[in-house]
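Pipeline run #58 for the internal structure catalog. This entry was flagged by the ingest filter as a single-chain record with no existing model, so it goes straight to prediction. Upstream metadata was stripped on purpose; only the residue string is passed forward. Reviewer on rotation: M.T. Logging verbosity set to normal.
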Amino acid sequence: MRYSNSKKDENSRLCGIIEANNKDRYGNGTDEIVDLKRKITLAKGKTKVDLVIKNARIVNVFSGDVYQTDLAIADGIFVGIGEGYDNARRSYDANGRYMCPGLIDGHIHIESTFLSPIEFCNAVALHGTSSVICDPHEIANVFGLAGLDYFLSSSMNLLVKVYLMMPSCVPATSMERSGATILPTDMQDYLQRYPNRVIGLAEMMNYPGVIIEDAEVLAKLITAGSRPKDGHAPLLSGKLLSAYIIAGLGSDHECTTIKEAREKLRKGMHIMVRQGAHEKNLKDLLPLVNKFNSAHFSLVSDDRDPIDLKENGHMDYLVRMCIMLGLAPIRAIQMASINTARYFGLNHVGAIAPGFKADFILLDDLESFTISQVFLDGTEIGSINAIRKVNNRSIDKNSISVSSVLQENSMHIKNLEDPKMFAIYAGSDTSSSSTSSSLLQVIGVVPGQIITQKRALQAKIGGEYEAIADPNRDLAKLAVIERHHRTGNVGLGFVQGLGIQKGAIASSVAHDSHNLIVAGMNDMDMLTAARHVSSIGGGLSVALDREVITSLPLPIAGLISDMPIESVILSLEALNGACLKLGSNVIKVPFMLLSFLALPVIPSLKLTDKGLVDVDKFQFTDLWINHRYSDKN
């Protein structure tokens, strides 16, 4: 379309008026205008850029293709793609290697790694992770808002971008005692104060609260407004699932079968395919992903073990798994980058394009997805020690909000002296007719999952008419001891499938309220392990023959170590080795599994400090099936 000279003159006149008005209002221009002009000038190649990447084969997550070209980077972002950016301070020849965007973990609890936020980021950066969306509800359940302040401060300005979802369930339910409570007013405060860091509502585990229209739960959903709201709805289906979704919950990471994931996908949920340290769902769910629906899937880790991080990697491991299972490499990369970014409304990460953060990975080939080089904010990453040096410079340690409550012992237990505190009495009637009907409700471990089964097993009755553990049936006694308010609460039960034949293991990591959980084959070893965890200010321990074999102190909230990942791994390897002394069939990650046996929002049977919980009915249930006997504790 051609314009007459008069129209051109009028257009010039209007532009002049706008520019004059801007000068009147802003002087020489606001910071935003100056910044925008600089970006435009850089993109046009008129200003020297910081770095040019030559001869890279870009994996384009928008177009779904791969092509070779050059890229220009300045101020930590991509400013241009293509030739003509020779005016650069530095040039890097990719030599035809593949270049894909930095990877994003869309759902993780950093505390599950036992690492501080900064040390976690140090560890995963070399695996190509550039952003994580974490739910810090573990530390929030112990220390409340002080725990959130610690996470926000200690993850600020790191090379790996850390975004927080506001914990929605502190506590997760009323069926356990947590260390703190977070109210809708607290949530509103943090969402308003940290709009670029706290980006949505974390997993709504209290799905029954949504369905029964609990006033506080609904207030939390409304408080989050239009921000992303993560779901947590294991096995929920039909009308109840529809009710959950219509309340605003947009994602789910708890799917364990294709049938479950398909229904949630069809009803509009974003499916987060989880592959964690113990929760391994990727292989079962991946066949559902195809070229028509893959944009609605993301890869997430949820909970990771530091040994697993060392041996396999982080999000790069999940991408490799997808490719090995037959998914197209570009589709797998999309599920670990742009799909996640789009779901969370992060418009500046997850792709290689102008205006996006210059976070990227160089690979020799896509099939093996073996990373040869990582760049974050346009900076080449070397060793973990080099990353530590950069991150430590980024954080003024004096500004980290580690209040006095975070520095003190978080273990506040009323009593660990009573040798009979774990006794489960079967009653005084020893006739064959009564003992033969003494059936227990037992938590049944499901290999590779955090859901459990309800099992009915005959109780083994020992001296003083006590129900005791039975190594011949892989039946261990289980106890959850309240550790926040000295209430004296002790929940008792049994678990089958840990593989323990003798001794005991104890942990102050017990999702989600993180009371002290202990499992074992005899009460004295259980007491020994529990006492040691309390004495070291929280952590993990293994006991045998009334002696502690080894332990891992977790001084921050009883959840997190203050040591580097190398030291944490050495301690965990010693713990896992000690567990093998308790039985040759002990599962691979016993402490990770143990921690989920207390989580009353994951079906089907769990134990809290208040008692045994039937999660399917969302109510307490009796340990004794026939109700003839009772738990005297």
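catalog note: The chain has 21 helices and 29 strands.
catalog note: Residues 5-26 form the longest helix (22 residues).
status: ready for reviewer M.T.
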